[in-house]
Each structure stands twice: as structure tokens, then as C-alpha cells.
Amino acid sequence: MKSGKLNNELLKSIVFNNITYQREEIMVRAGIGEDCAVIDFGEFACVISTDPITGASNKVGRLAVHIACNDIASNGVEPLGLLLTLLVPEGTTEAELNEIMKEAGEAAAELNVEIMGGHTEVTSAVNKIIISATVIGKHPKNKVIFSKGAQPGDLVIMTKSAGLEGTAIIAHDWEDRLRKDLGDSIVEEGKKMMQDISVVKEGVIAGKIGVTAMHDATEGGLLGALWELCEASKVGTLIDREKINIAPVTKEICEFFNLDPLRLISSGCMLITVAQEKAPELLNEYKKNGIVATIIGKVTASGRFMQDGENLLEILPPIGDELYKVF
User: Fold this and answer.
1) Residue of 233, 213, 229 lying closest to 221 (CA atoms)
2) C-alpha distances in angstroms, 48 versus 30, 72, 192, 248?
3) Sign of the CA dihedral 282, 287, 290, 296?
4) What pLDDT is recorded for position 9?
5) pLDDT of 270-319, one tens digit each?
6) Euclidean distance between CA atoms 297 and 154, whole angstroms
7) N or C: which end of the chain has fewer CB within 10 A?
8) Do 236 and 184 fall into the same domain?
């Protein structure tokens, strides 16, 4: 099999088909497009998600915290606590381990999240550092946002820009080559995007206003995330490529490596569907909080398409991420 998340057909046939026992307390369970599991605890729901960092070599402590917390935010929930599993290869230095935990601790403090525990191990089972984070949140049960809530007629909104995380990872991991071929300013601008990979603020704001669905654009990029959101909601979409925000630095790096920015890992970019009458309030709240947000299309009853000039392109299921083409 190729590097990256399992495709949706394998997820269904190998993973989901082998999960046969279900409990009535589980409100949201494993499914295409669902970032989190949700457990019924009476008045409140416990929202849980887990994610590893496998495609990056630098800033993995920071990435692990933010990527996991972003999943919780896609349910409109503020993250509460984290469990970290850190597997490092033999030969890893204490200084390297300290740097990872320092990054994780700083990122957690920024988000007001406690690292509650986890597991740390030096092992010959891995040949690079692997860190995985499990995040937990608590929220009133009737206010949790789900990926499956999008309705025909809703507007589709994206925050920040497509390919955001991928740009930051490539700028860090390919720094020397990019400095030589594209210049120092491109590298520094790309590396700075690592500061913008959290979507907790926009997720919590959207949850308070009451949107219909959210999905963090992680592996598979903006188009992959949009397809997954539509799949979870059993709806279609029509978006306009010209309205999709792509930072100039992302365009330059993607052109250099021949990557599609719309299929590049995009943590920091939240996809949101919202009823048209609530869209002005949401956009205004984002503007007040310094969050760039753009209406890129609408939800339809069926068919998943992107208008690209005169061409109408079908949005296909994610089959990997452009990031893996670089490594």
C-alpha cells in the first residue's frame, strides 16, 4: 500500500467492517468524514479524537498538539486535555526529546490544554520519531457540531488558506534546498505559517453561532476534506476555484515541487457549512477576531463539483496527500 491514510474503500472494507460491537452511549462513531468520536454523558458529551504526526520531521511536538486539538474544534468544542504517545528510534538524544516536549508544552499552554499523560519509549520498531496525540473535550450535548449536518442551500466557507500546513512542513524540512532555489524570503514566509495551524478559535466561534457542519482540512487537503464532509452529510457541493484562498508562498512552493495546493495537507484551514442567514454574523465575528474567511461555494443536493474557469470538475475522494510526493 502507498503512504498516507487508507483510502475510503479500504477503510470501509478492512476497518469499519471489523468493528461489529456498538454501545448505545456512543453518539458519533467511526465513519468517513468524522473527525471525532462523541460519547453521551447525560447533559454533556465527551468528544475525543486521535492523530499521529508522520509526514513531518520538524516541529512535531507543536504539530501533534495542534492537529489533535483541531479535530475537537471541528465539533465546536474547546479542547480540555491531551495524552501523548512518543516513540523514538534508538540513538535519539535527550536534547531532541526535550525539544519535542518543549514544543508540545508551549503549544498546549497557548490553547489552555493540559497534557494529562501518555507514553514515551525508545524503540527499534521505528526509524524516525513518531508522536501521536489523543485529545478530549467536554461540551453541552445539544450544542455539539457534527460533520454530517450540512444541508442543501448552506454556504461553504473556508478559513485562512489552502495548503497551509503542507507549506509550513515543506519550508521547514526542505529549508536548505528552498533557500538555494527560491530564496530566503519564501522559506521564512513558509515557516511562519506553522504559527497559523490551529483552528480552535474559529471552531469554537462557529460552534457558538451555530453552523451546520465543520471539517478540518488535514491530509488530502481542502478538496479531500470537502469531499469527506459531503460524504458524511450525504450531500453535494459546487465551489468556485477562483474564490479559494491560496497564499502566494504556497503557490510558489507547490509550483516548485509540482504539487496541487488543493490536495496538500491544510491543517489551519477549516471548512464550514452554514445557513445563509447566519453567514454574515459568522463572517463578521471572524473579521473581529482577525480570522480570514471566504465563501467559496454552496451545498447542493447531489454531485460534488468545482468550477474552474469554463470547466466543471468533479471533486473526487481523497487518495493520498501531495506532501508525500516531496519525501
Assistant:
1) 229
2) 11, 7, 29, 35
3) positive
4) 86
5) 999 999 999 999 999 999 999 999 999 999 999 999 999 999 999 999 88
6) 9
7) N
8) yes
In the chain, DSSP assigns E strands to: 26-28, 37-41, 44-53, 79-88, 114-122, 130-140, 155-159, 213-216, 236-240, 270-274, 293-300, 304-308, 311-314
Q: What is the pTM of this model?
A: 0.88
Spatial distance between the Cα atoms of 206 and 157, rounded to a whole number of angstroms = 11
Show the cell assigned to 292: 480570514
Mean pLDDT within 227-256: 97
Closest CA to 197 of 40, 67, 61: 67
Using DSSP, state whether 126 is helix, strand or coil: coil
User: Which of 111, 128, 143 is the last residue in one of the domains?
Assistant: 143
What radius of gyration do the chain's Cα atoms show? 19
Domain end (from 143, 176, 207): 143
Q: What is the pLDDT of residue 8?
A: 82
Contacts of 55 (CB under 8 A, 6+ apart): 169, 219, 265, 321, 323, 324, 327
Q: What is the residue type of 178?
A: L
Task: Report the alpha-carbon distance of residue 225 to residue 230 in Å, rounded.
Answer: 9
Q: Is residue 287 part of a domain?
A: yes
Evaluate whether 74 touches 216 at the Cβ level (below 8 Å): yes
CATH code of residue 77:
3.30.1330.10
Among candidates 174, 261, 156, which has minimal Cα distance to 213?
A: 156
